């Protein structure tokens, strides 16, 4: 029995050493995997941080550009508003001038009708005072019949 115990002892101690060696190798391998995982996670974080920083920089640059364009657009809108106000004022003045011109034309037509009435009245008075006289005034008055206006004489 003693020989079986001593013969099993070297086998058992060999098994224990092998087991401890396997555990040690397993721990080393696990430690290498852990270090590789930590390194890979660190690299991933660096890549993600760099990518996010780049994208964030691009977003901020785009935001600045948009804000600049918005300011430029607001400035152009203000210029357009001022220009539109000037044009509106000019159009209003032009409309007023057209109305005044229409009033002057209407006034001229009224004066012309009144003058024709006065000329016709003078012709009647002259004809009644001088029934047989054929004067140059008679010829002028004959040409100034109510159907013809002064504007026709200017032609």
UniProtKB/TrEMBL annotation:
The protein's name in its UniProt record: Biogenesis of lysosome-related organelles complex 1 subunit 1
Biased composition (Polar residues): 144-155
Biased composition range(s): Basic and acidic residues: 15-26
GO cellular component, one term: BLOC-1 complex
Biological process, per Gene Ontology: endosomal transport
Domain of life: Eukaryota
One Pfam family here: GCN5L1
Region (Disordered): 1-26, 131-155
Taxonomic classification: Eukaryota, Fungi, Fungi incertae sedis, Zoopagomycota, Kickxellomycotina
Membership in a protein family: Belongs to the BLOC1S1 family.
Organism of this sequence: Coemansia guatemalensis
Biased composition (Low complexity): 1-13
Cross-referenced InterPro entries: BLOC1S1
């Amino acid at each position: 029995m003693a020989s079986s115990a001593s013969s099993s002892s070297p086998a058992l101690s060999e098994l224990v050493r092998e087991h401890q060696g396997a555990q040690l190798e397993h721990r080393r391998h696990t430690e290498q995997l852990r270090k590789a995982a930590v390194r890979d996670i660190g690299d991933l974080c660096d890549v993600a941080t760099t990518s996010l920083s780049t994208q964030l920089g691009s977003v901020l640059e785009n935001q600045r550009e948009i804000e600049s364009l918005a300011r430029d657009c607001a400035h152009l809108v203000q210029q357009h508003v001022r220009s539109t106000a000037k044009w509106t004022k000019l159009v209003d003045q032009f409309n007023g001038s057209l109305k005044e011109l229409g009033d002057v034309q209407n006034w001229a037509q009224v004066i012309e009708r009144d003058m024709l009435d006065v000329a016709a009245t003078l012709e009647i008075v002259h004809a009644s005072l001088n029934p047989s006289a054929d004067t140059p005034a008679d010829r002028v008055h004959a040409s100034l019949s109510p159907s013809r206006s002064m504007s026709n004489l200017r032609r």
